[in-house]
Amino acid sequence: MQIQAFYGFQELKLSWDYASALSMVMKENSFQSDNGMSAFSKAFQTNLESFDYYYQKEPERGRRFSLAMTPFTVSYASSLTLYPFQDLRPGALVVDVGGGSGHVSSEIAKANPHLNFVVQDYEEPISLGRATYKESGLPIEWQVHNAFQTQPVKGADVYFMRRVLHDHSDTVAADVLRMTAGAMDNASRILIEDMIAPDLYGEDSDWFTNQADIVMMMMHNAKERTLAQWDALVKKADERLKIVKVWNGAGDFKGNSAIIEVTLNL
């Protein structure tokens, strides 16, 4: 827990810099979709988006970030309960796009031993995951992959994107979906686990979603999306993509977690 607490304290201090830069960025750039023109980029005086900056310029910060994401397996157990992974065919392949160190895929694999997994991300979190789960015996393959490039795993049963697309503007997120669509076949689906923001911010909205929306704007020029915005994003990426079902959370997860199931009409 010490690494998570330290990471949180460091980022809390830096968030003051992001916040102070936000108004300047919005005035200068009119909320451009380029991730490298965010308040984060302004505060750090870089044209890199935050993840590229972490892993390229400050690898120790990137390492702390990878470690800090692990507790979210507990905080967001929705991945294990929202979608019926148990109903996937024996031997089904799940590609965890931007899956970090595999902390979520490992939990799904433990609960569903009939599935196989490929976890994709930057080299740092992949190395961490490979070392962490080396002796686990779990059916996980580790793959360094840039989600903005051609998806190398073709025809997987599931392409899982958990807390990935909300880190990116519509333009950039559409690129990720487009690359994934190019690898899909008739039986493939994309599972997007993310927040679904309320259509109107008011009494029915919650503080966590509102806060996350502001953080995404400061860090990535991104946002938390309403269902209509998710639908528009999917269509922007590829007109053949279609939302077929939304698996909503309940209780503490309601609103803060949903899995959006997307298929490709070939």
Automatic annotation (TrEMBL):
Keywords, in A-Z order: Methyltransferase, S-adenosyl-L-methionine, Transferase
InterPro entries assigned: COMT-like, COMT_C, SAM-dependent_MTases_sf
Signal sequence annotation: none
The species this protein was found in: Colletotrichum destructivum
A GO BP entry: methylation
Protein name: O-methyltransferase domain, S-adenosyl-L-methionine-dependent methyltransferase superfamily
GO molecular function: O-methyltransferase activity
Residue span, O-methyltransferase C-terminal domain: 34-237
Pfam families named among the record's database cross-references: Methyltransf_2
